[in-house]
Amino acid sequence: MDKAEIVRKELRLIIRELGLLNYNCLNSGLTLVQAHVLNYLKQNGITPFNELAIQLGIDKASLSRILNSLKAKNFIKIEKSPTDKRMKHISLLSLGMEAIINGDMEANKFINEILCLGNNSTNDNIAKSLKEFHILTLKNNLIKNDSRIKIERLSSNYMDDAIRLTTEIFAYEQNIPEELIPINKDLKQIWWCARVGEDIIGVVACWQENNQWHWGRFAVDKRLRGLGVGKKMAIFSLNEMFNLDVEKVFIEARDVTVTILKQLGCEVLGEPIDFYGEPVTPVIMKKLDFINKMKQQTK
Predict the structure, then answer these.
(1) Which residue among 25, 147, 152, 159 has the highest number of C-beta atoms inside a 10 angstrom radius?
(2) Membrane-spanning regions, if any (predicted)?
């Protein structure tokens, strides 16, 4: 058998042995698709119907049936959008929250029973391999269709994931001391992210210090670079800042980021300086320059 056949066979058998095809998936009291819906709502709050369909990869007719079954159990609420009556918004109710929390606990017990049969090395390899395969499947899907990538304000539910990603990039990849990575909690700050489902694949932040706004903590998962995620985050975050009546933003950026920012109209303020072994360049992004550049790119 070639590798593709081996992977397909193992996935098929794993799904069967884990009982993922059963109504009581992983002893959670939920079907697999019900667990996916409830977990997404738990993480992301009120969600438009279309977003749920896109992020979970479920056709609209099937999703409607799934949501109606969850609504019948008083797990979710389905309401018309206050701004567009054609759109439906889905939210998690207390019984639904209880169901997914209990389901997660039972599923963890089920998986731990299996992991107890292996040793630490085996279990570490399983976790690492599953993560790597997950990223490969995600990248393959995003190359074909990147509509699932959402650029948005970072929800507090994802702050730990954002800090984890910035630490991986700045500390482990760029050798910047970990203590320099967090933004001073006393400073006014705004975070944005690139999200696919429950995966945070990019982050960026702005913070106000000494009456000046700064832009940074710009990071994209190294395994998902080359998909245009960084530029999309830069445009979205800077556009939001300038819509808040901020006139200019100061940035110290590495070469690859400077290349992106030059496409958006930044002005270089000085020569690069060494920052833990890599050059960073001081630049400024002015509101008018950014707006003009965006107009040119949309013509």
Answers:
(1) 25
(2) none
